[in-house]
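Session log. Operator J.P. requested a structure for one protein chain; no other inputs attached. Running the standard single-chain path with token output.
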Amino acid sequence: MSLIKLIRKYLIISIIVVLLIGCISHFLIFRFFIHYSNDQMLLDQKARLENYIAENDTLPLAATLVLKPARIEEYAIEDIDVSHKNVFKDTIMYSEETGTFTPYRQLHFTVSYGNKYHLININQPTMISNDLFYAIVSSLLLLLVLFILFTYVIEHLLKKNIWQPLNYNLQKLHEYDLKANTILELRNPNIKEFDEINEVILRMVDKINKDYENSRLFTEDASHEMQTPLSIIKSKLDLLVQNSQLMRDQENERSIKAISRAVSRLSKLNKSLLLITKINNDQYEKREDIHLDELLKLYLTDLEELFEAKNLTLTADIQPCLLHIDSALANILVSNLLSNSVRHNLANGRINIYLDSSRLQISNTCNSELKGSADLFNRMTFHNRSENSLGLGLNIVKSICDKNEFKIEYDYPEKDIFCISIEFK
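Structure written below.
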């Protein structure tokens, strides 16, 4: 849910709650003041009656006479009841004028004249509570409609003056590319908090750009600088190997071979790490249509000697598959998958390959000790790799799949079977 819709939701809920509370409170307040006004009128009439009785020792009118707007009723009683002194209450009486029952406000009090006590009821017509309630509800409903319309007006103004620049900035952030080395331009909605957010974002992007460029240059420079001493070490080792006098000593021969293996491993590691960095930095952008089925068949032909050397049985079901991918990455992807299936296979093992337009699946026999290893895509957690393996093959494959939005998974469908599958988007 967008922020503007969330604001509108809470605003409408708040208005409804306030109007409900206002409806009840208005009803109680209005009723109080209507009763107060009627009570004052009744007290005035009571005072006039008491003055008239004090002067004439009788009521001014007969007990059944209707006064406008009040009605007076009189009852003779034996003695004064304290409870009959200025008692107000609501009642309903028949109105001869309208021919209907009408709500009245009634005042009870006692007077004495003609040597007798009399109970006097003065009735004053008042407003019907239901009519009052409906009037209040109708007015508040009208206010509710106006408030809701007003919220949409506010929403329109907010979208125009605030959310439009924010949406523009958000789109610019989505489209921003670190590799393009361009300046990020954001719009300020002239609101202090949002303008400060833009300033923070621009500072962060500038810092990220500098760090990215420094990291890229450091990786490339370090890789190139390492190649030179590694080449020198390898050439010097070749000279030492050619020295027959030096190689006569078995201890020297073992040491030189160990150094040679370490140098070769370091050289491969350097190239693999540089490759992963380039993939993650999106430096492979020349996408083209690649027939993966033809590329896969070509690599299988090149690996026939390795299959024969380990006596591996190959089963392949290869159907046409066209991918839009960088050709170098496609070659690396196929090469690493097939190399892993051979390198980590068993003697007299088997390899099964299936390819169609949406999926590539390669399964091979493997050492059961690999089952249950940590994440094979993460070199830092994969500790069961072989001595000659850098443990970066699947890491490189995972990086290629992530950059091309391919879904890659691996599993052990059987005890000694490793299966890796890639679903193309």
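Operator note: Residues 287-423 form a domain with the Heat Shock Protein 90 fold (CATH 3.30.565.10).
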